[in-house]
Amino acid sequence: MKILQLSTLILIFQISTVSAQKTFIIDGVEVPRTLEFMDAKLSLNGGGTIAKASSNGFVQALYLSQLRQDPKFIIADNSEMGMRIQITSSGLSSTKLIKIFNESFQKSLGKKIDDFKPEIEKFNNCLVGEIEKGDVLKLMYSSTDTSVSVFKNDKLKGKIKGINFKKALFGIWLSDKPIDEKLKNHLLGK
């Protein structure tokens, strides 16, 4: 009888271990350990939330083709990567989300923001529409066509061309002036 119980326990542990390896929990949100994009398998580099309670309405996760902790390298890198953002608040509208992104671009780019106005406007247009708790945004960079594809719940909302826009976008979280230093460290796996 004890052998049967032990065997059952081992089997349950193995099933739990396999399931746990496919996802990671961040603030109660199940985040996949890998994302497929452009024939590349991207791995979870790190993830977290913004520390300020007033801004916290989503869980973010950074995916890279090769795990890194150097933010400058990640920003400059011309390989597939992505940012997964899951909405965790029912009070986050697209207007508020666009405002958060605009403030984030302003903070990280400073005076250089004028150089990116057309790209930021196109990006913001991808965010327009109803936002619901549980929605998932994926901001995926392709080195093949040097563009950022914006997906909402796996539906392509638009593409923004240019590696420089990709650098500006990922700079929101990884630059010397990120939206949140604690989140930056979490995305870097620190």
What does this structure look like?
It is a single chain. The chain is an alpha+beta fold. The chain has a single domain (22-187), classed as Chalcone isomerase, CATH 3.50.70. Helix content is 38%, strand content 29%. It has helices at 2-22, 71-76, 94-109, 117-127, 163-174, 181-187, and strands spanning 23-26, 29-32, 34-37, 40-48, 58-64, 81-87, 136-142, 147-152, 155-161. It has a seven-stranded antiparallel β-sheet with strand order 3-4-5-6-7-8-9. A two-stranded antiparallel ribbon has the order 1-2. Strand 7 (136-142) and strand 8 form a beta hairpin. The chain is globular, with a radius of gyration of 18 Å. Residues 4-20 have low confidence and may be disordered.
Terminal Cα span: 46 Å
Please give the number of β-strands: 9
Strand residue percentage: 25-35%
What is the fold-level CATH name, i.e. the topology?
A: Chalcone isomerase
Q: H/E order of the elements?
A: HEEEEEHEHHEEEHH
For the largest beta-sheet, the strand count, sense and barrel status come to:
7 strands, antiparallel
**Overall CATH class:** Alpha Beta
Outline the secondary-structure elements.
Blueprint: H1 2-22, E1 23-26, E2 29-32, E3 34-37, E4 40-48, E5 58-64, H2 71-76, E6 81-87, H3 94-109, H4 117-127, E7 136-142, E8 147-152, E9 155-161, H5 163-174, H6 181-187
Antiparallel strand pairs: 1-2, 3-4, 4-5, 5-6, 6-7, 7-8, 8-9
Can you give me a brief rundown of this structure?
The chain has about 190 residues and is of the alpha+beta class. Helix content is about 40%, strand content about 30%. β3 and β4 (about 40-50) form a beta hairpin.
